[in-house]
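Folds vary. Our protein:
___
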Amino acid sequence: MSKRIALVEDDAAIRDNYRAALHKQGYDVLCYEDRSSASQAFQQRLPDLAIIDIGLKEEIDGGFTLCQQLRGLSPSLPIIFFTARDNDYDTICGLRMGADDYLTKDISLPHLLARIAALFRRTELLKMPVNQEDILESGALCMDTNRMTVTWQQQPVELTITEFWMLHAIARHAGHVKSRQQLMDESRMVVDDTTITSHIKRIRRKFQQLDDSFDRIETVYGMGYRWKSQ
């Protein structure tokens, strides 16, 4: 069965071009020109992946609002911001709202398709049967790499796909520093330092919401990040 991609874009020419390109790759593409129509559709049925522009018609930040709504409906559904707005503020805002990726419209089509395929490969792991070899435990942390679930002190931590693999890269070698490049490689991302920092901060906040004293993710300035052993 074809993967269903929701494309939320208010520019008709861009929308039609990318719909055709994605359709050629075998995807079932559902297009929406504004937040309202997309939101109504998502309430009825969720896509397998959503590509969202930030500015939607008269709503300058309509894409941000839609991302929050969609993330509320599904903590793990892959979400990509695809926008002409190329600045640190919008990138950080988008990732804080739960997007897995933030791409600008000057990206090449092969690059976009590669990012979509990488997200789909990671979601396929959710369908694999539970295997004890896929369980990572470190103190109060437990991660299931097949189902991409995380618990801290036996409480679930809702991470996006990208956040999951970044945390996994750090936690599976407790005490060892992981560079930003290593985090990109293991989470299959190609992003800048600001984007990685935003993801790490978001992961920390999610743990801190469950445990005020959480301090296991350590920043090693000039080098990267590490999971502190107990």
Observations:
- The first strand starts at residue 4 and ends at 8.
